Amino acid sequence: MISVTGKGSEHFETELQSKAQELVSVLNEGDLSSAMDIIHELHEFRHKTFFSEVGYLTRGLHEAIKAFSNELGAGLQMGDETAAEEADAADRLNYVIEVTEKNAHETMDRVDKALALVDKLDSQSERFKDLLLLVGQLEKEHDSLNGVYDRTCAVKEESEKTIGVLRTELTDIVVSQSYQDITGQLIRRVINLVTNVETHLISLMEMAAKVEKLSGIEVQPGSQEVAKTNKKNPIQAEGPQVNKDSADVVSNQDEVDDLLSSLGF
Amino acid sequence: MNKDMKILVVDDFSTMRRIIKNLLRDLGMTNVQEADDGQTALPILKQGGIDFLVTDWNMPGMTGIDLLKEVRADPNLAHMPVLMVTAEAKKEQIIAAAQAGVNGYVVKPFTAAVLKEKIDKIFERLG
After folding, report:
1. What are the CA-CA distances from residue A209 to residues A4, A57, A119, A223, B65 (Å)?
2. Element (H, E) at A265
3. Angle formed by the axes of helices A179-213 and B14-26, nearest 10°
4. What is the pTM of this model?
5. Which one of A38, A149, A206, B65 is separated from A214 by 20 to 30 angstroms, measured CA to CA?
6. Looking at beta carbons, which residues of chain B come within 8 Å of A240?
7. Which residue of A has its CA nearest to B24?
8. CB of B110 less than 8 A from some CB of A
């Protein structure tokens, strides 16, 4: 944690009290010119305190941003090269999307290969059928083969069922790779957020630096502008919903179907 | 359902395009083209020859809902069946998609069975 609070305000209070007493005593003595000097000193002192507080805040923000990006950099070990560079939060998050995308594709490559093997098993099963017919014919001629045809047929059916289940499981592995899209969309939103925060913080720091340079207390009206948040478009794309309990969000496909059928679909 | 029909799959995530392509292949539909957002999809659609559009919603450039509106506004494309496959799950969004003329709406993450069911339903209705 970084403390952004300067000690200027405490110091200011004690100083104010002692100057106030001084002011009362010179006024009691009728020394108006000294009284005006003290008022002027107080005025100056207030300005200085204000600016040093702004300075503390600015430095604190700066440290917080640096610590934030360093933490992200340390958490993800991406090799010495990149770790040594100034950590960029958005880049790191993009890296997560890239890695998960690459891995999802590698998984699907293997599933594709596995599915090709399942196809091969299917065609082998066809050839097996021909051989079985031959066994069926021989069974009639040789008593010792009695029942072999039926039993082999049962095994063949069982194995065909297994192949079917295997195909479904493999397809489900492909479908489950959609986590990459779902998480990727959320990460993209966080990237946008981080980028916005960074941009605003940087302009805030620039503004603070300007304030420090100015001798007067007035901040230029232009720099006080607050970014107006546009009124949100209710159907604007938001990506995956994290809070599925919310009343305005559907939590599964059944609810989508219900809603659409209520609309005459 | 004509298995030879030409399908355009639009999603900014290559992972999702590949998943949908694989599932369509399981349904016997192998004539699939891809685009990564509405902006790249629209010229492909306007060129003609696409029979069925499967699109995501949340994409950079042009979103799926805007693509759907463009499709419905173009007399040559207006009758094209459109299935939205998206993580957007707000009721308001689903209603907006329905009003814009979507033929089916699947929320991510979905199962192979749900996608198949919705595609079958779209073509059942169209006859």
Report:
1. 16, 11, 69, 12, 44
2. none
3. 160
4. 0.70
5. A38
6. 87, 89, 108
7. A171
8. yes
- Give residue-wise pLDDT tens across range A126-160: 888 888 888 888 888 888 888 888 898 999 999 99
ipTM for the whole complex: 0.81
pLDDT tens-digit readout, B42-98: 999 999 999 999 999 999 999 999 999 999 999 999 999 999 999 999 999 999 999
Q: Cβ separation of B15 and A240 shorter than 8 Å?
A: no
Per-residue tokens: B65 = 């809902």
What is the β-pairing status of strands B52-55 and B82-86? parallel
At B61, the amino acid letter reads: G
**The Cα angle at residue A115 between residues A113 and A121, in degrees rounded to 5:** 110
Q: How far apart are CA A245 and CA A55, in angstroms?
A: 44
The H helix count followed by the E strand count for chain B is 5, 5
Yes or no, beta carbons of B108 and A174 under 8 Å apart = no
Q: Which helix (H) or strand (E) holds B98?
A: helix B91-99
